[in-house]
Write a structure and sequence with these properties.
Strand content: 5-15%
CATH architecture: Alpha-Beta Complex
CATH class: Alpha Beta
Oligomer: single chain
Number of strands: 7
Helix content: 40-55%
CATH topology: Spore Coat Polysaccharide Biosynthesis Protein SpsA, Chain A
Order of helices and strands: HEHEHEHEHEHEHHEHH
Largest sheet: 7 strands, mixed
């Protein structure tokens, strides 16, 4: 948690925190993102997963003080995140904060998603653009329809209402990191399917209101007709997550040996 003067408390400085940033062709933006993180959370480490960028993303990230984890071919957003999770697990980090490198996610909002992890209230925290208290965020009608659709599917499957199931601004506690780094993480578009997976595995999930802004430049992975492809892939991935329910039940029993169903261990 943060002290009244905005500095880190002793609890936070003793916790090893990694900020993970998947990035592809984010030159001109990534350096500023890293420097803003250092201003807000000066004791954290930052890892930029360079997903085969063809510009100076890697150099700018290193010059700004981040670890650079290079991918020699373009593996995509999900694989880049999983690379960061594996790095965090192997280097014994306690918490992972993930954000984009395009300036959409604000470093000033990191303490908001970090706090429920540090206080033990949640295992996975999602920064939401659409909760009361969130700042205005521009989004296309097609993307907003997709967000509402997958929020509805999650509500049907979990009984919970998630306002922003496609948010990539997240905080992961130790149990979530263990699950996501175990080889089950989807390699394409980890969004609603990952929330469902975490729920079925018995992890405590919380949303907090955050402010985000539009991309400062570069190409979005949801540009053009890609949202339609994304939607079909996400529906398939959600179906696969449901088919693998016995796997998630085993994970649930890892956290809570007395749990044998989907009820009783999660916050409403």
């Amino acid at each position: 948690m943060k002290a009244k003067d905005g500095s880190l408390t002793s609890n936070e400085t003793k916790t090893r925190i990694l900020v993970a940033i998947p990035a592809r062709n984010e030159a001109g933006r990534i350096g500023g993102v890293i420097r803003s993180i250092h201003r807000v959370l000066p004791t954290v480490d930052i890892a930029v997963v360079n997903d085969d960028s063809h510009d100076t993303t890697a150099r700018e990230a290193a010059e700004a003080g981040a670890f650079v984890l290079p991918l020699t071919t373009n593996l995509g957003y999900g694989a880049a995140l999983e690379t960061a999770y594996l790095f965090a697990r192997n280097q014994s980090y306690d918490v992972v904060l993930q954000m984009d490198g395009d300036g959409q996610h604000l470093a000033e909002e990191l303490p908001r998603i970090l706090a429920p992890i540090l206080t033990g209230e949640a295992d996975l925290v999602l920064g939401s653009r659409f909760m009361a208290g969130s700042g205005p965020f521009p989004t296309s009608p097609l993307r907003r329809c997709g967000q509402v659709l997958f929020a509805g599917i999650l509500r049907l499957c979990t009984g919970r209402h998630f306002t922003d199931p496609t948010s990539g601004f997240q905080a992961l506690g130790g149990q979530t990191l263990r699950l996501f780094a175990s080889g089950v993480f989807p390699c394409d578009y980890p969004d609603a399917d990952v929330i469902l997976m975490a729920h079925l595995a018995g992890l405590r999930i919380r949303e907090v209101a955050v402010t985000m802004r539009a991309r400062e430049g570069g190409a979005s992975m949801h540009a053009g007709w890609k949202p339609l492809y994304y939607g079909l892939k996400m529906l398939l991935s959600i179906f696969i997550v449901l088919l693998n329910y016995p796997t998630w039940r085993k994970w649930r029993r890892t956290w809570n040996p007395n749990s044998s169903s989907l009820t009783g261990s999660l916050e409403p």
